[in-house]
Structures are given as structure tokens and as C-alpha cells.
Specification:
Structural class: mainly alpha
Order of helices and strands: HHHHHHHHHHH
Largest sheet: none
Radius of gyration: 20 Å
Helix content: over 70%
Distance between the termini: 50 Å
Shape: globular
């Protein structure tokens, strides 16, 4: 911490993430929480990784109430990101690209807003932005987690028509669902 305090340019998310993670792993959760609060108070934007690190630390140490409070902050972050995303189309010359759409779709999926993610996916096509393999895999994983197998099948078929394939994360979810009996073998065959 002394070295951190002496750094001339220390107000970046990556540095704070590393410190928060280090303190969580060493069991100094109070210091990690203080750093997180400091980060927010000096307007260093926490990333999804920051929240993930802190949530893991809080859950591992039995502080579930605090974890739920942090999770609510994370949901607000998605809402703030949504407001920013919507304002892009209002500014002349600024048009969201495939990466921006995919990030927003992923955020909506993590928030549990699958219908909104689906609408944004369709809007993406209407705006002339072609989804990439990451966009498809993000949506497929979310639909599988939500047990919407039929929508997952439609997305996989569309993804394959576009020349894309399932990534390792999607295949892992399918394998887990196969082993628990929530999917049958034909689903895995469809991915190959």
C-alpha cells in the first residue's frame, strides 16, 4: 500500500482491481472494501471484473448481505451503461459497433433481462450491424442458462448459417447440461 500511495498515476481500474483482489485473497476484506469505496469516491470506474473480485471475496467470507448490496450496484452499472448506449444514437456521427452491441447484450443477459437482450439483438440487425460469433455465443449461453432450449437451437442454427461456431464456454455449458440430463445428446451433435 505504501508503494501504491507513492505512485504518481494510481487512479486506474486495473491497479485497483489488482489491489482489491490481493486483499481479498489474503483475507483482508475490510481493506478491499475500503479500496473499493475509495475507487468509487475518486471516480475511478469499477469494471465487471472489480465487482466479480469483490463479490467472490464477500461470498467466500460469508458476507452475503454486503455481496447483495454490491450486486445491486452492479445492476445499476448496467442501467447506467444502457443509458449511455441509448444516448449514442442521439449524438451525430456516433454509431454503436458490433463490439458495443455485444457488450450491452452481455450486460443485459447478466442482469437477467433476456427479452431486452433479444430485442437489442434484433435492433442490431435493423441498424445494419452484423452480429459476430461472440454476440451469438453470448446470447446462446444466456438462453441455455435460462432453460430456453428452443431459442438456443434457433440461435445456433442461425450462427452456423453465418459461418460461426460455438466457443469453449458455450460447449462447457452444453456439456454440463448433458451430464445433468437437462439436454440430450442430439444438442451436442447440432453444435458440431
Amino acid at each position: 500500500m505504501r508503494l501504491f500511495r507513492k505512485m504518481p498515476l494510481r487512479d486506474d481500474t486495473v491497479t485497483y482491481n489488482a489491489l482489491v483482489q490481493g486483499f481479498c485473497q489474503s483475507g483482508k476484506l475490510n481493506v478491499a472494501k475500503e479500496l473499493f469505496q475509495e475507487m468509487v469516491s475518486i471516480s475511478v470506474p469499477p469494471s465487471v471484473m472489480t465487482y466479480g473480485i469483490l463479490l467472490d471475496g464477500l461470498c467466500d467470507n460469508g458476507e452475503l448481505d454486503k455481496a447483495l448490496e454490491i450486486l445491486d450496484q452492479m445492476r445499476n452499472m448496467v442501467d447506467d451503461a444502457w443509458d449511455l448506449f441509448c444516448s449514442l444514437s442521439l449524438n451525430k456521427g456516433v454509431k454503436p459497433d458490433v463490439k458495443t452491441y455485444t457488450i450491452m447484450i452481455g450486460g443485459l443477459c447478466k442482469k437477467g433481462s433476456l427479452s431486452e437482450a433479444g430485442m437489442l439483438f434484433r435492433k442490431m440487425g435493423e441498424d445494419g450491424i452484423a452480429p459476430n460469433d461472440c454476440t451469438y455465443n453470448t446470447l446462446i449461453r444466456a438462453q441455455l442458462r435460462g432453460s430456453d432450449i428452443s431459442t438456443s437451437v434457433e440461435l445456433i442454427e442461425e450462427m452456423k448459417r453465418c459461418g460461426f461456431s460455438a466457443d469453449a464456454s458455450t460447449i462447457n455449458i452444453v456439456m454440463d447440461m448433458l451430464s445433468s440430463g437437462r439436454l440430450d445428446r442430439s444438442f451436442l451433435d447440432m453444435l458440431s
